[in-house]
Amino acid sequence: MTDPTPDDVDDPTAAEADAAPGEAAVEGVGDTAAEPEPVRRLYLHIGLPKSGSTFLQSVLGSNRATLREHGFSYPYVRQEGMFHAALEMAGNPDQWGVDRDEIEGTFDRLVRRGKRLGGDVVISHEIFSAANGKQAKAILDRLGDFEVHLVITVRNLAQTLTAQWQERVKNGHNVSFEEFADDILAGLPDDVADYDDDMVGFWRGQNLLWVLKRWRRFVPPERVHLVITPPGGSGPDVLWRRFCEATGMPADVVDVASTPRRNESLGVAQIALLRRVLGELDRIAEAEDDALVQPWYAVVAKRWFAQSVLSTARSAKPVAPAPVGERLEAVTRHWIEVVERIGHPVHGDLAELFPTDVTADTPHPDDVDDEEMFEGMPQVLARMLLHDRDVRVAVRELEAERRTLTQERDRLAAEVADLNGTVEELQQRRRWPLPSRGRS
Question: Residue 268, class by beta-carbon neighbours within 10 Å (0-12 exposed, 13-18 middle, 19+ buried)?
Answer without folding.
Answer: buried
